[in-house]
């Protein structure tokens, strides 16, 4: 359990960040109700502050208000996930293109190569959890290399960690090797400075994820 700081209760923004971290880690599951009074007690915060946190996280897409029932960790419909995937296809593709157009520093090259090596190792070990964490970090690094803050801001709202938690575990394990083959092409294209190939490979990668979502049973969605 997260504790208040030694100097007093956590700031409202820190409470929000901790709740987001719990959602990302799966400690709070999609569809789980968050109890205002319990969180107020845990964080030694007034219920008004917890309501402010809820309002912020609803605005950011992490939580949802359900009339006459309370606040829940957001679940996504299939249509919402597919819509986010279409937006991600364009933005992730552009991010890969811009990264490939960049004259990479030695540190940037090393970071991208290290990500790819860890992804390769996770596939070889059939380690889904490590692969998912590294996958997110890999995409974030490409976005950072691209250096376009607008892409980064928009992608933050439509990336996988939020809704992947509600999908079956074999969503990752079944597609991990194929997904990483796409990563290998993207990585090689960025390192070679080939923007067309980097964008095409990244867009194909995101489209494949959307196609997988289309094949899932209806009960996985709200």
- The SSE string, one letter per element, is HEHHEEHHHHHHH
Globular, elongated, flat, extended or rod-shaped: what is the shape?
globular
Give the oligomeric state.
single chain
Give the neighbour order of strands across the main sheet. Answer: 1-3-2
Please state the average pLDDT score: 88
Percentage of residues in helical conformation: 55-70%
Q: Which blocks of ≥5 consecutive residues have pLDDT under 50? A: 1-6
CATH architecture of the largest domain: Up-down Bundle
Task: Please tell me about this protein's structure.
This protein has about 220 residues and is mostly helical. It has two domains: about 10-75, Winged helix-like DNA-binding domain superfamily/Winged helix DNA-binding domain (Arc Repressor Mutant, subunit A); about 80-220, Up-down Bundle (Four Helix Bundle (Hemerythrin (Met), subunit A)), CATH 1.20.120. Helices cover about 70% and strands about 5% of the residues. It is built from ten helices and three strands. The protein has helices at about 10-25, 35-40, 45-60, 80-100, 105-125, 130-145, 150-160, 160-165, 170-190, 195-215; strands at about 35, 65, 70-75. A three-stranded antiparallel sheet has the order 1-3-2. It is globular and about 55 Å long. Mean pLDDT is about 90; it is low at about 1-5.
Give the gist of this structure:
This protein is mainly alpha-helical. It has two domains: 62 residues, Winged helix-like DNA-binding domain superfamily/Winged helix DNA-binding domain (Arc Repressor Mutant, subunit A), CATH 1.10.10.10; 143 residues, GntR ligand-binding domain-like (Four Helix Bundle (Hemerythrin (Met), subunit A)).
């Amino acid at each position: 359990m997260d504790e208040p700081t030694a100097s007093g209760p956590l700031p409202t923004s820190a409470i929000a960040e901790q709740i987001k971290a719990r959602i990302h880690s799966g400690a709070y599951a999609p569809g789980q109700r968050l109890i205002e009074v319990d969180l107020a007690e845990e964080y030694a915060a007034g219920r008004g502050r917890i309501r402010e946190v809820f309002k912020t996280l609803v605005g950011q897409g992490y939580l949802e208000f359900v009339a006459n029932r309370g606040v829940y960790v957001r679940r996504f419909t299939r249509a919402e996930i597919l819509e986010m995937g279409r937006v991600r296809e364009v933005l992730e593709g552009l991010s890969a293109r811009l990264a490939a157009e960049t004259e990479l520093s030695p540190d940037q090259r090393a970071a991208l190569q290290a990500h790819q090596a860890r992804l390769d190792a996770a596939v070889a070990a059939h380690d889904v959890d490590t692969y998912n964490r590294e996958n997110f970090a890999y995409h974030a690094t490409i976005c950072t290399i691209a250096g376009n803050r607008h892409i980064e801001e928009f992608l933050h709202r439509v990336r996988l960690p939020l809704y992947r938690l509600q999908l079956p575990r074999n969503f990752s394990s079944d597609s991990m090797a194929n997904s990483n083959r796409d990563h290998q092409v993207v990585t090689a294209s960025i390192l070679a400075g080939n923007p067309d190939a980097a964008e095409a490979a990244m867009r194909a990668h995101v489209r494949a994820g959307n196609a997988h979502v289309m094949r899932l049973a209806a009960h996985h969605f709200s």
